[in-house]
Automatic annotation (TrEMBL):
Domain Coenzyme F420 hydrogenase/dehydrogenase beta subunit N-terminal: 81-157
Species: Rippkaea orientalis (strain PCC 8801 / RF-1)
PANTHER family in UniProt: 7-HYDROXYMETHYL CHLOROPHYLL A REDUCTASE, CHLOROPLASTIC (PTHR31332)
Occurrences of domain Coenzyme F420 hydrogenase/dehydrogenase beta subunit C-terminal (ranges): 165-311
Comp. bias intervals (Basic residues): 11-22
Protein name as it appears in the record: Coenzyme F420 hydrogenase/dehydrogenase beta subunit domain protein
Disordered: annotated segments: 1-23
Pfam families hit by this protein: FrhB_FdhB_C, FrhB_FdhB_N
Classification via InterPro entries: Co_F420_Hydgase/DH_bsu_N, FRHB/FDHB/HCAR-like, FrhB_FdhB_C
Domain of life (superkingdom): Bacteria
GO molecular function, one term: oxidoreductase activity, acting on CH or CH2 groups, with an iron-sulfur protein as acceptor
Length: 401
């Protein structure tokens, strides 16, 4: 753990005003830490100023990734991995609502006094509004992804002021890295962390560009996901699903949409959460769960009765598809829609499934992000890219310039 002064942060620092430049500059993911007096610790805590995943893994899980084990490169430290879905899905959740269900149980069974989660503002369904939920209604109102950078940690001052001692935080990798770094400063008896994987996040303006370039009806999209069938599924207000093949995305227009923080991120699988709930390591229609430590095990046990589970599978070979996607993305190649659809159908039949699909997605994003960092922030390559990510990237041939 890096050395941090023991002086109370509120006597030393004040959160920055909205809109002002953050210490991580363009790489800032707006995780919210700098909106609070915990900005005092930003140099050590910020995921983009001080990448320290392996040190924090030791503290959170008792060990860091075993670099001799390829599974650890990809998925981090875990005790158990499973595919699961809620027997009765929560209406309007991103998938079947396992995240919201666990949070509700933790609150009603008294494990925690509050849950940090993200609702949206009344005016805009995609504008994130982090809250500390104290009722199950408030947790359920935060269901579904806000596919935008969300300042979840901006509520940290409220946590201290509320006097809460037991807290659940739901969040994505960059938020959780900063949270772990200041965990001991929060005065909590117990912090539970429920993470989701996260990739390709955008600012609110970037989201608008993405929707307008990709969907036929951007204003009616309720939520979307990059699915295991190699298509983006947009769900619209009337319940209809629009599917757009990955290979037909207008990459030349979308290149600058993703936030620079997400183009420099190597923590896709939320390495420091106690429990991770995503989808990409599971077959279509199922969610993917990784229990990282004993706390995560305790959390998952709360919903055992509510979910069906099955073992994860791994089929196919991703390597060629990843290698081919590197120059295609780099040059901003867009296939005509008929070719993109055809390619989608073929790859869905013979392409990677289960954990191999997750590896496909991790490889594609890590190689892209490595190139981005090399070109835009070469001084950060050595320290910011974790060793496991370097090993993943080294499996491929990257353009030399
Ligand atoms: P729900 O019950 O609907 O709950 C969703 C929870 O997410 C809510 O509690 C809410 O507080 C929280 N949340 C919503 N938006 C944000 C945000 N912007 N920041 C922090 N917390 C938020 N999984 C994969 O396997 N592969 C991926 O590539 C992938 N990409 C993702 C990209 C983004 C931007 C996000 C936010 C999530 C991503 N996930 C990914 C996770 C996945 O989409 C689901 O969130 C997860 O499976 C939980 O589904 P659920 O139905 O259980 O969640
Ligand atoms: Fe601050 Fe978070 Fe931005 Fe880093 S990512 S500069 S900790 S708000």
């Amino acid at each position: 753990m890096p050395s941090m002064t023991s002086i109370a942060p509120h006597t030393k620092a004040k959160g920055l005003k909205p809109g002002s430049r953050r210490p991580a500059k363009e790489l800032c993911s707006e995780c919210g830490l700098c909106d609070t007096y915990y900005i005092h610790y930003v140099k050590e805590a910020c995921a983009f100023l001080n990448q320290q995943i392996s040190e924090l893994e030791e503290i959170a899980h008792g060990r860091s990734r075993n670099l001799d084990d390829e599974n650890d490169w990809y998925f981090g430290v875990y005790q158990q991995m499973t595919a699961a879905r809620k027997k009765q899905p929560i209406e309007g959740a991103q998938w079947t609502g396992i995240v919201s269900a666990i949070a509700c149980e933790m609150l009603t069974q008294g494990l925690v006094e509050g849950v940090v989660c993200v609702q949206n503002t009344p005016e805009d369904r995609f504008q994130p509004m982090p809250i500390i939920a104290k009722t199950t209604e408030e947790i359920l109102a935060a269901r579904v992804n806000k596919p935008t950078l969300s300042p979840n940690l901006s509520i940290l001052e409220q946590v201290e002021q509320s006097g809460m001692k037991r807290l659940l935080v739901i969040g994505v990798g960059c938020q959780i890295q900063a949270l772990r770094a200041v965990e001991k400063k929060l005065g909590l008896e117990k912090l539970y962390i429920l993470g989701t994987p996260c990739v390709d996040n955008v600012t609110r303006e970037g989201l608008q560009t993405f929707l307008q370039t990709t969907s036929k009806s951007p204003e009616t999209v309720i939520h979307y996901e990059f699915m295991q069938d190699f298509r983006v599924h947009f769900k619209h207000e009337d319940g209809s699903i629009e599917k757009v093949p990955f290979f037909g995305l207008k990459t030349n227009k979308l290149k600058d949409v993703f936030a620079p923080s997400c183009m420099s991120c190597f923590d896709y699988v939320n390495s420091l959460a106690d429990l991770v709930v995503g989808y990409m390591g599971a077959e279509f229609g199922w969610q993917w769960i990784m229990v990282r430590n004993e706390t995560g095990r305790e959390m998952l046990a709360l919903v055992e009765e509510q979910i069906d589970t099955k073992p994860v599978i791994s089929q196919g070979d991703r390597k060629q598809a990843v290698q081919q996607s590197i120059p295609a993305y780099d040059k901003g190649v867009t296939l005509p829609m008929w070719a993109a659809k055809l390619m989608g159908v073929v790859i869905e039949k013979i392409g990677p499934k289960g954990l191999e699909y997750a590896r496909f997605s991790i490889d594609s994003h890590f190689t892209r992000n490595y190139l981005y960092l090399k070109r835009n922030h070469p001084e950060k390559l050595a320290d910011h890219v974790p060793e496991y990510a370097k090993r993943i990237v080294n499996q491929y041939q990257l353009p030399t310039h």
